[in-house]
Specification:
mainly beta, 1 helix, Deoxyuridine 5'-Triphosphate Nucleotidohydrolase, Chain A, 165 residues, two-stranded antiparallel sheet, 8-stranded antiparallel sheet
């Protein structure tokens, strides 16, 4: 795998809302914009349908923090991405979170995907206090052979994307 920094002139991908201190040697830090509590409703998936559990926003307290108890939370980043031709990427957890029992999981960002960046933040032990705009993940961009562009249910202009506006 050949990594290609998303902020280099050699990439065809782009990322919004990047601050100078977000640019790391091999990746770009991503900041949390929204935290959503995932309901415990049934999740149904097969080859013809997806019925999501549903979510509700976690409120920011007067002190400016979200208070997250052990569990899984959907997170929406402050960044949006457009993955260029011949490239793909994924998000890894920042090491500070890992060392404190918190980790992110996301799917692959395929060639041609354009839209929000989202994932699940797993708080595994004890309460976590986190402010909006905190850096929680790093986007890794790499060269990828693509047979076609992304055409899934998520991203700009897709019905699922409307819930994040």
């Amino acid at each position: 795998m050949s990594m290609k920094h998303i902020m280099s002139k050699e990439t065809t991908s782009s990322l919004t809302n990047v601050q100078a201190k977000d640019i790391q040697p091999n990746a770009v830090d991503l900041r949390v914009g929204k935290v959503l509590e995932i309901s415990d409703n049934d999740f149904t998936i097969d080859e013809t349908q997806k019925i999501h559990r549903g979510t509700k926003p976690v409120d920011v307290f007067e002190d400016g923090y979200w208070y997250l108890y052990p569990g899984a939370y959907e997170v929406i980043m402050d960044n949006e991405i457009e993955v260029g031709m011949g490239e793909a990427g994924f998000v890894i957890t920042r090491s500070t979170l890992n060392r404190n029992g918190v980790y992110l999981t996301t799917g692959l960002y395929d060639t041609g995907y354009k839209g929000i960046m989202a994932g699940v933040m797993h708080v595994t032990c004890g309460r976590m206090k986190i402010k909006p705009g905190t850096r929680i993940g790093q986007y890794l961009n790499f060269d990828a052979e693509a047979l076609h562009k992304y055409d899934g249910d998520y991203g700009k202009g897709k019905a699922h994307d409307k819930k994040y506006e």
